[in-house]
Amino acid sequence: MVKRHSVFLLFLFVTALVWAEERGEVVEGVDLRQFEGTWYEIARLPNKHQKGMVEVTSTLKRTKDGKYVLITSGYKGSRGGKKTTIKGEVRVKDPENAGEMKIKMFVFSIDYRVIDLDRDNYRYALITTDSDKFLWILSRSPEMKQAEFDMLVDSARRQGFDVDRLELVSQESNSAIAGR
To answer: Are the C-beta atoms of residues 103 and 110 closer than 8 Å to each other?
Structure first.
């Protein structure tokens, strides 16, 4: 009985590893220099840290000493709401592939994984962490072409994410500013 139980647990463990591997395979050959700059959050899986946040942007910036930081900011409810900004130190696991980074903020750190990307122009990206609970669709502009959005949603679905839970992130004020 114990042997069967152990074999079953091993099967579950291996299945979980394979399943996790399918969720969010990192894009190879991501160029950190091209990834630099501001990204607009178009959609995300709901999470308690960003509940009600709008106008969310993430900016990857190189510092004078050659390191990178990721600055994420947004507003609670509307552009007139409370602004929240978080700055994290970026560590690239493999300099040849910047698609997998670690972002250190305060006393904790998260994995930041690029799982889909416009490899030609770096106009859009699909980002996750080491958990299937987090997913972001990012764009270089506050408005995204519907075909590109749909393609990223399909990519996330194929990788095992619950895309029915995706919520759109308002970029209304950023869109108005960009349109000037």
So the answer is: yes
DSSP string, 126-144: EEE-SSTT-EEEEESSSS-
Give the structural domain span for 140: 2-178
Predicted confidence at residue 179, as pLDDT, reads: 57
What number of H helices and E strands is found in the chain?
A: 4, 9
Backbone dihedral region of 77: left (phi > 0), alpha (psi from -120 to 50 degrees) or beta? left
Beta strands in 33-154, from DSSP E residues, in sequence order: 37-44, 53-62, 68-76, 83-94, 97-105, 108-117, 124-128, 135-139
Q: With H, G, I as helix, E, B as strand and everything else as coil, classify residue 9.
A: helix
Q: What does the block give as tokens for 138?
A: 């990012």
Looking at the structure of the chain, the number of domains it has is 1
Tens of pLDDT, residues 140-175: 999 999 999 999 999 999 999 999 999 999 998 876
- What pLDDT shows up at residue 97? 81
CATH number, domain containing residue 101:
2.40.128.20
